[in-house]
Amino acid sequence: MPQVNGRFVPDMKSPRTPDNEEPAEERAHDFRPVDKGFTKEMALAEAERCMDCKKPLCVEGCPVNIKIPKFIEKIREQDFGAALDIIHEDSMLPAICGRVCPQENQCEGRCIRGKKSEPVAIGQLERFLGDQPELASKPQMKPANGKKVAVIGSGPSGITCAGELARNGFDVTVFEAFFTGGGVLVYGIPEFRLPKAVVKREIDGLKELGVKFEFNSVMGNLANADELLNEKGFDAIYVATGAGLPKFLNIPGENLPNVYFANEYLTRVNLMKANKFPEYDTPTKHAKQVVVFGGGNVAMDAVRTAKRLGAERAIIAYRFTTPRPRASRSCRLSRRSSSSPARTATCAP
Amino acid sequence: MYKILEKTQFSEKVFKFRIEAPEMAKHAHAGQFLMVRANETGERVPFTFADWNPEEGWVEFIFMVVGKTTKMLSTYEPGDAILDVTGPLGQPTVMAPGTTCVIGGGVGLAIAYPVARTLVKTGHEVHAIMGARTKDLLLLEDQFRELLPDDHIHITTDDGSYGEKGVVTAPLERLLQAKAVDEVFCVGPVPMMKFSTLTAEKYGTPITASLNPIMVDGTGMCGCCRVEIDGKTKFACVDGPDFDATKVDWNDLRARQAAYRTEEGQALKAYEEANCACHR
Ligand SMILES: Cc1cc2nc3c(=O)[nH]c(=O)nc-3n(C[C@H](O)[C@H](O)[C@H](O)COP(=O)(O)OP(=O)(O)OC[C@H]3O[C@@H](n4cnc5c(N)ncnc54)[C@H](O)[C@@H]3O)c2cc1C
Ligand code: SF4
Ligand code: FES
């Protein structure tokens, strides 16, 4: 680690370490993860690029204000356990957030290095640490305080809250409508962007902290707030039931068969494994030509799924003429199409 | 895991399961449904509650073997467990006080029966019109007969092999003409529901249809179950399954129901080939 007068000197020459991706032509046909994540060498090289700013704007850009330069410093020192502990002070889901957070609008979007060259690959570094959970110190558990909390929904919101409460001594039960935990992380975001094993690891971690999970539990129908508070002895309820209903376009024909809302299209494949039909019972359509309306993460997940289900032509149709739709980096468009102002674009798989 | 406490076979293809589910039993209402995922590779399929008992902690549903999942379920025995059962889902059936005509066609009879039973329990006078293609496909006749007097049961078969030859609209029309019913509830194949609706409309009698589109999550998240009601998109799993039948776009429902016919056939064939006696 280069130093002058005892102070670290950042590497101002090297370009941003590129993602460790599978070649497009190979990955387009199956659901294996697209991005293999940084190797140790890549992480160390990238960590050298951080300037350890006095006023780190990246931290302001992060919704939970992770102490980014501090954990990057620990990466440089190769003390990965300490680096992970620093992240854990503010976020318990680095393996997930490192993969799916829209970093280009948050931490990396504000990174000072991004002004003259490319921002530090903060998300990749976060993920690099999150994927080695065994290095973290055992979480500090406060003694049980005798209070019971019901968390409704097991998406990122529910599991974050559950973990936080459990560490602070609360007795937590998560009620989830589906048969498995993770919310959008398991039914929405595809395997190739966020492996389900990563989500399972987080859920298992919560179980180890003593969090109980009740699946197949549609709250409101199976028990209402009154019953939870007055009959089942909960002291508080945290509602994390997600964004819910799909939005309609109100255009003729939108209810025809073979027209899907992304939630259905993605749930069939991600949660019900329709790509493995008939080994799994849930079918889906394997269309040769697919058009996806929208330009965010969900649209990218859908169009990339269509490719993997065998589409010869998969098209994004987006209502704005901005050069680049709103999707985050982990599901961005290919460079060729992202520089084109056209309303439709083909997508890198 | 949800344990099967009892299995009753009504006919060659019709079964009833009693499942241990204490919380669900406390909150179930007529017209609501549950969703089953039989095993790890299973799909999620909806079944209407046939009965429930909060004291003993069980719920029941009736099903007819039509595809792979129901075929596989029919091989489950008491003591076996179903991997996932979720419910209660959907809105309860609400009928105005008075005399109700409950029409069930084909497998729809498995849904019509619990509705009829609840209506009887809540003080309604009930007429049942039971329709089937042929005698062997007529479900739950004994159960309906136990529930209702004989002159309140009207049976039709398409081929005339039992009851009156023809379709359910003939007895419906007679009841409406005689002003014998205040309200109609129907469940079954789309053409049956559509023509029942046209008939009821002719007499200005309110009619409710229980719609059965394909579902995936059953909680209003995916939009698979969407139906067009009065030109607006509704989700059968959370807004229904009961809707004002005069407002339903039947062509849309029919098309959406048929969307996976080919795949359903494929799945059943694969299952039968893997499980038939000659391959075992
Ligand atoms: C396909 C897709 C891709 C996305 N990609 C990104 C991305 O790359 N980056 C990003 O930042 N965001 C992304 N998002 C958005 C992100 O997933 C959501 O902001 C996030 O999941 C919200 O988390 P949550 O915990 O509030 O809700 P959810 O993840 O929706 O979880 C809610 C949970 O509550 C359960 N539930 C609902 N009602 C009940 C009830 N009555 N009783 C019990 N349980 C109930 C649901 O089954 C679900 O499991 C994406 C969304 C989708 C759909
Ligand atoms: S803004 Fe960029 S360079 Fe500065 S501390 Fe944050 S990550 Fe490092
Ligand atoms: S089945 Fe998914 S919204 Fe109704």
From TrEMBL, chain B:
Gene3D superfamilies, A to Z: Nucleotide-binding domain of ferredoxin-NADP reductase (FNR) module, Translation factors
- Protein keywords: 2Fe-2S, Iron, Iron-sulfur, Metal-binding
One GO MF annotation is: oxidoreductase activity
> Where on the tree of life does the source sit, at the highest rank?
Bacteria
- Cross-referenced InterPro entries: Cbr1-like_FAD-bd_dom, Cyt_c3_hydrogenase_gsu, Dihydroorotate_DH_Fe-S-bd, FAD-bd_FR_type, FNR_nucleotide-bd, OxRdtase_FAD/NAD-bd, PyrK_electron_transfer, Riboflavin_synthase-like_b-brl
Q: Which cofactor does it need?
A: [2Fe-2S] cluster
- What does the entry's cofactor note say about binding and number? Binds 1 [2Fe-2S] cluster per subunit.
The UniProt record gives the binding positions of [2Fe-2S] cluster as C222, C225, C237
> Which CDD domains is this protein grouped with?
DHOD_e_trans_like1
Cite the FAD-binding FR-type domain residue spans from the record: 1-95
One GO term of the biological process aspect: pyrimidine nucleotide biosynthetic process
Name the UniProt record assigns to this protein: Ferredoxin-NADP reductase
Biological source species: Tractidigestivibacter scatoligenes
List the lineage, top down.
Bacteria, Bacillati, Actinomycetota, Coriobacteriia, Coriobacteriales
